[in-house]
Amino acid sequence: MRGDSVRVVSCALLLAAANLALARELVQIELAPERTVRAGSHTAVEVIVQLPAGNNSPLLLTPSVEGEAVEVVRGRLMRPDAKAVDGDHSRLRFEVPVLAKSEGTAILRVDVMTYVCERVCVRVVLRASEVLRVRGE
Question: 51-79 pLDDT, tens per residue?
């Protein structure tokens, strides 16, 4: 009896891992290429999130920055903050507002959390990063 329950749990864990791997393939993040901004300026960094067709699940985009040269102005963006790319609601464009504070380099990191639902819903968390360079005024 005990051996059967261990097999059931093992199969369930393998199925969950397979669903998670598939879900991660279906969701992708693209950040605007490395760029240079002027110190003292406000700008927006474009982030594209590719979702499976028909996915209307909640989505949370959380930007953060490593380094002193740039400050994230808004720390959380959600699905309603996005615009569909060319009318395609499976490709969402977010504009992450940042302030270039001082000359130097910073790394912008973007975490995306959403759900992909097939037979079961799987939580998907992805991370992308890009370098931002700030030049003097």
Answer: 998 888 999 999 999 999 999 999 999 99
What pTM, to 2 d.p., does this model score? 0.78
CA angle 59, 87, 52 (to 5 degrees): 45
**Within 13 Å of residue 7, how many CA atoms lie on the same side as its CB?**
4
Do residues 118 and 62 lie in contact, with contact meaning Cβ atoms separated by under 8 Å? no
Q: Which of 54, 49, 57, 38 is nearest to 100 (CA)?
A: 38
> CA–CA separation, 82 vs 88, rounded Å?
12
Task: Tell me the per-residue pLDDT of 116-131, one tens digit each, with 9 for 90 and over.
Answer: 988 888 999 999 999 9
* Phi, psi angle pair for 69, to nearest 5°: -75, -25
Give the whole-angstrom CA distance, residue 6 versus residue 13. 11
Q: Are strands 121-135 and 35-38 parallel, antiparallel or unpaired?
A: parallel
d(CA 5, CA 2): 5
Structure tokens at 39: 């110190």
